[in-house]
Amino acid sequence: MNTIPAHLDHLVLATPDLAATIADFTRRTGVSPAVGGTHVGLGTRNYLVGLGGAGYLEIIGPDPARSGPSGPRPFGVDGLPGPRTVTWAIRTTDLDAAIASARARGYDPGPARAMSRRTPDGLLEWRLTDGVAAHPSGLVPFLIDWGTSRHPTAGGLPVTPLLRLTATAPDPDGIRPLLAALDTGLALAEGPVGFSFTIGTPRGPVTFT
């Protein structure tokens, strides 16, 4: 069974200690993630690894060079006990139309908001659906539209091909219609809320949760 969801843009691996998580990823895989950049006004920064094609892994955590923002940092990174795959994103080239389509099919992914990130090459800008309104499990993806910005995978990221992406939920049948409303899917089984993904690396397949 193909476990790579349609329209996958990226997976989000959040951590309270970015340096330690990057070091652990490098040790386990033999691949060093590329510097992404800082999220303007949010107190976070990220590193990126390509997953093959136009998909990538975002490793995100507090930015030690920036003071904390006035509100919570994205993905609750400060409150996590350790690194965890918290959610994922799917691509669209017309965010407003995709939101309207999802609402017409019974799921509201939330309003669109603009975001940006300072990278070594300059400012990268995009729009996405507001994570505050997203399904609390994180299993239902948010939508992202890169507009005229260069996609992160176009910058020559190190690549660890995504071999498998699965998840568990207490009520998988309650999640599947929401995924269908977004024109995507996710291999789901019954269990505690969580993700598991496996990537190909120079040291063989490696699984993260």
List the helices and strands and how they pair.
Blueprint lengths: L7 E7 L3 H12 L4 E6 L4 E9 L2 E8 L21 E8 L3 H10 L7 E8 L2 E8 L12 E4 L16 E8 L2 H10 L5 E4 L3 E6 L6 E3 L1
Parallel strand pairs: 1-4, 5-8, 9-10
Antiparallel strand pairs: 1-5, 2-3, 2-6, 3-4, 6-7, 7-8, 9-11, 11-12
Structure explained in plain terms:
15% of the residues lie in helices and 38% in strands. It has helices at residues 18-29, 95-104, 172-181, and strands at residues 8-14, 34-39, 44-52, 55-62, 84-91, 112-119, 122-129, 142-145, 162-169, 187-190, 194-199, 206-208. An 8-stranded mixed barrel has the order 1-4-3-2-6-7-8-5. The chain has a 4-stranded mixed sheet with strand order 10-9-11-12, covered by helices on one side. Strand 9 (162-169), helix 3 and strand 10 form a beta-alpha-beta unit.
The percentage of residues in β strands lies in 35-45%
Query: In what order do the strands lie side by side in the largest sheet?
Result: 1-4-3-2-6-7-8-5
Please tell me what the overall shape is: globular
Helix content: 10-25%
Main sheet makeup = 8 strands, mixed, barrel
Roughly how many Å apart are the termini? Answer: 20 Å
Low-confidence stretches: none
Give the helices and strands as they follow along the chain.
EHEEEEHEEEEHEEE
Name its key features.
alpha+beta, about 15% helix, single chain, about 210 residues, 3 helices, 8-stranded mixed beta barrel, 4-stranded mixed beta sheet
